[in-house]
Amino acid sequence: MNNFQYARATDVADAIRLLADPGAKLIAGGTNLIDLMKENVERPTRLIDISRLPLRKVEETADGSLRIGALVPNSDLAYHPLIEQRYPLLASAILAGASAQLRNMASVGGNLMQRTRCAYFYDTATPCNKRHPGSGCSAMDGLNRNHAILGTSASCIATNPSDMSVALAALGALVHIAGPSGERAVAVTDFHRLPGDKPHVDTSLGTGEIITAIELPPRGFAQNYSYLKIRDRMSYAFALVSVAAALELEGNAISGARLALGGVAHKPWRSLEAEAALRGQAATPDHFSHAADVLLQGATTRSHNGFKVELARRAIVRTLTQATNATPQSQAHKKIA
Amino acid sequence: MNAYVGTPTSRVDGRAKVTGAAKYAGEFPADKLLHGFVVEATIPCGRIARLDTSEALQVEGVLDVLTHANRPPLADKVEPWKDEVAPEKGSPFRPLYDDTIKFNSQPIALVVAEDWETAKFAATLVRVEYEQRGFATDLEGERSNAAEKDKPHKPRGDAAAALAGADVRHEADYVIPTEHHNPMELYATTAVWESNGKLTIYDKTQGVQNVHKFLCGVFDKKPDDIRVVSPYVGGAFGSGLRPQYQVVLATLGALALKRSVRVVLTRQQMYGLGYRPMTIERVALGAKSDGTLDAVTHEAIAVTSRYEDFARNDTGWAEQLYKSPNSRFSHKLVHLDVSTPSDMRAPGAASGVCALECAMDELAVALKLDPVELRLKCYSDRDQSENLPYTSKQLRECYARGADAFGWSRRNPAPRSMRDGKDLVGWGMATGVWEALQMPVAVRIALTSNGHAEVSCAASDIGTGTYTIVAQVAADALGLPIENISVRLADSSLPQAPVEGGSWMAASSAHAVLAAAEEVRKELLRLAGKMPGSPLADTELADTVLKDGSIAGASDNSRAVSIADAMRHGGIERIEKEKLNQFEEDKKHARNTHSAVFAEVKVDEELGVIRVTRVVSAVAAGRILNTKTGRSQIMGSVVWGIGMALHEETVMDHRFGRIMNANIAEYHIPVNADVYDIDVIFVDEPDDRINKLGIKGLGEIGIVGVPAAIANAVYHATGKRIRRFPITLDKLLD
Predict the structure, then answer these.
(1) How far is residue B318's CA from residue B296's CA, in Å, rounded to a whole number?
(2) How many domains does chain A contain in total?
(3) ipTM field
(4) Chain B partners of A3 at a C-beta cutoff of 8 Å?
């Protein structure tokens, strides 16, 4: 680990001011950043500790939205009564990720900022466009079993590892950001970027900007939802494919649908087209399967990740079925419902 | 006599371990301790063209950067580097010896600093330029270069002809990937520079005397100059049988700087140590239509390094398990630009028997026979390789007890015939086999007149429970409560012991305790017999026991003299006896442990997600010294078997010759959520031939057969035969 300076931000404005230093990085829970620093992948010259800033509230707003401070620990959020009651999809997705210890440390804002788990990104002895722009993508023709099948570019096929973000994308959450030129809000689906020719840039966060809160719109899909994460072991593994599905049903007819995937792209992959394909249809396996086909149109695969297309298709159908039946996947029980 | 042996005695070191009082190699304090961090090569083959340490040396707190160019002397001859577990053929790896790169992640420099973080940071500033050479790391790509290195196993009959003429044949390749041990404790050495210039080496190892002899040879030291200590080991599983490079580097650092130096490897660096070699196991079985075997052939093709021939017995196990008039076995090696493999839980057997038992399952399907019935039809009461009977073999009983506990009779043999909701249910089974080995071990017992005894031996306890069983056997042999026994282990200055491995330490250490205790009893009898009016005058040694703090007549316990009285009359406070126990050579019997493993899997039909919902392991391993730690051993091994079946794989990018999942986030082992019910049955297996106490040893046997039982269950559930491990869900998707 490099030597670095440490500064504790006194308030958000102070954090923004300190971020003017191009070598500076924000640290909250540190569950990903410290890891990357140990691997010599991240080499900040200054850490700005924001963990004591007053961004830990979960508040209902006048219009019925819910505003979640960026520093709320993942566990606190997953077990918050308002989240459990109104946004159980989000609670479930958070509990599908990492381990209890990591969730206790990790902040909501930090979860949005976590970087890919691509092995080449982590190994400084191999080329990686994300770590060292222009050096090449080792995964493209290398070990790419865990890599992206949607929204890839010629320079990067890495995936975003977050579970929480997938549920946030499905729920249409906003990210509130403060920066040198004031405050702004951006949809979670626009917060994370596709790799394009700048895979080293993960998000749309600008220089000096800091996440202050996440806002969940009033519609919570608390009746018919499910988060299903398919991975190589039953816990503590990143998703091969994960699906966040949420439905509003009138009888057996779908009046509202949300569908987002994890483990398949450089960002949580919400598909408005697939959602449109579901709306107005009967909640049947055939329609789910059709929506999956719509979502997966344009999927591209490399030597080892071809299975993800079929796996994603089946997982989408299963998750929508769980949502329809109001039998969401339990993250505490190992069996897939 | 048996107040403790055979009982579920709790670990005598349990409290020290859970309270943190137990110190591990990287935890021993030392004055003015320095910390070393290893710089690793990033290419698999070639030489170091330039190594620039100037920037690293400028970092405040860095004392030195040791490289091949500036290190203290190391042995130039090959012989001193050959530790007692080194392969016969080859020249062991010598860290920082010269500029040659033999494998990726090879240590090429040691940064020594006042603290670990400084050393680690400075290590990133060491600049290296290489002359890279062409290399190969892919076993399957280099398969055509496989060659038999040792004298081939003696064939029986004409296997090729028998196979050609068999009613039913099965032949297939099974691929076992490279696997790493991943013990919880990181490899570490604290080399303490003593005031007299001698070294005390706290090392994570399975054999302190092996490391001691190795260091004395490599550094040209006298035995008294170095002492190696390793009181607790947080798992090793074979990775600590040979001295690992961090012990050489820490010692080099201490000698160079005349200060104490600690080197702790990172988890990632531990992937540069030994591993279970990837193997391609080709098994062919030929049977008569009645299910009896006519021919077995098994060829293993395994990875080894360019510099050593590491080979274990993958292929010979069918000789012991199944009657067949014709057989041929061969083990071939492929030299690659990788580090030398090492022993890893049931080396050879875990891989080879996995292939054999999958093949037997495939044969049973082809014959339309129940898999247990097939194994009973082929059951061999003799070890066919030398045509010898066993000291004991209760494998039939393992099949019966295991099948009964599992409910095997309710199995519908047709694949995909059993369901539980969306899950396909599969039941599979396999046989396990391992050797019952025993080695010479010496033990010293110091008995004091207050009825306390210190039992000491250089053997390691790698977490297996050696402290506990030594205490149990000593308490029984000395007739004392276990609280009165203190056990000292794993110090090279203690009485002789080999490395702890191969499941041999239980039998070996237990009988050494018995032998030393007999010497103590002899001395007590001599003292007691001399007492005026002694009730034990003229009593033969064979007619005495130690019981309840006394020496007593074996047939008449009332004729007794207390230890305190005997010593007082003899005018001594303490009896100290050391005895080397050697087992009588018995070339007329085969010695093995066995198991029958039954597994249930539930496979989500659409998604391919596999859960191992039940395992029954019925084990025949002679007398079980401690049913509690023994059960834990088997349970742990079964969990490992689940990992071998479904999770574990060291993945290498052959373009770089680099391991790409060198961490335990991406190298998957089972987590709690992957483990359901594990039922361990110890089948009664009295054995008065193998040794006095009838001990065979546990540990290795627990994993053998488990991966095959699970793979066979996956086939039964899905109708899909996966021959390339681990069985991940993508392999089940159409």
Answers:
(1) 7
(2) 2
(3) 0.97
(4) 121
